[in-house]
Amino acid sequence: MPTARIFQRPKNAMQSGKFRTDHWQLEFEPAEAKQPDPLTGWAGSGDTRDQLRLGFPTAEAAVEYCEAQGYDYVVVAAPERKLKLQAYADNFR
After folding, report:
1. Across the chain, how many H-helices and E-strands are there?
2. Quick check: 18 and 87 in contact, CB under 8 A?
3. C-alpha dihedral sign at 3, 8, 9, 14
4. In whole angstroms, how far apart are CA 86 and each of 16, 80, 93?
5. How does pLDDT run across 48-91, given as a tens digit for each residue?
6. pLDDT at 93 over 90
7. pLDDT at residue 13, as a whole number
8. What is the pairing mode between strands 53-56 and 24-28?
9. From CA 89, how far away is CA 81, in angstroms rounded?
10. Is 26 exposed, middle or buried (CB count within 10 Å of its CB: 0-12, 13-18, 19+)?
11. Sheet with 24-28, side-by-side order of all strands
12. Mean pLDDT across the stretch 40-54?
């Protein structure tokens, strides 16, 4: 049985917005190691589930999908965000 990883999408570090950070994503663990292609040298494998990413509005919906399909799953909790609040005047102290 394939193992699925369910996680909450992280905030993009390059932007200040939090678009789609409340969505949950399901990805499958790779079933085989990637091998270099003899012609091009690119890494690849015959496992097509590596290309599949499913989005869900909640973690419970993703868990229900895995249980209905018979997949083993692991739910990865989102890291807690720490806000560093500071005022502009703190730059001059």
Report:
1. 1, 6
2. no
3. negative
4. 16, 19, 12
5. 888 899 999 999 999 999 999 999 999 998 877 787 888 888 88
6. no
7. 73
8. antiparallel
9. 24
10. buried
11. 53-56, 24-28, 3-8, 72-76
12. 89
Among 4, 19, 12, residue whose Cα is nearest residue 64: 4
Adjacent-strand bridge partners of 90: none
Mean pLDDT of 38-56: 90
| pTM score | 0.74
Q: 3-92: which CATH topology?
A: Double Stranded RNA Binding Domain (3.30.160)
pLDDT at residue 26 in the model: 96
Q: Quote the pLDDT of residue 51.
A: 87
Structure-token pair, residue 38: 């003899």
51: DSSP letter: G
What's at 64, amino acid-wise? Answer: E
* Sequence-separated contacts (24+) of 81-87 with Cβ below 8 Å: none
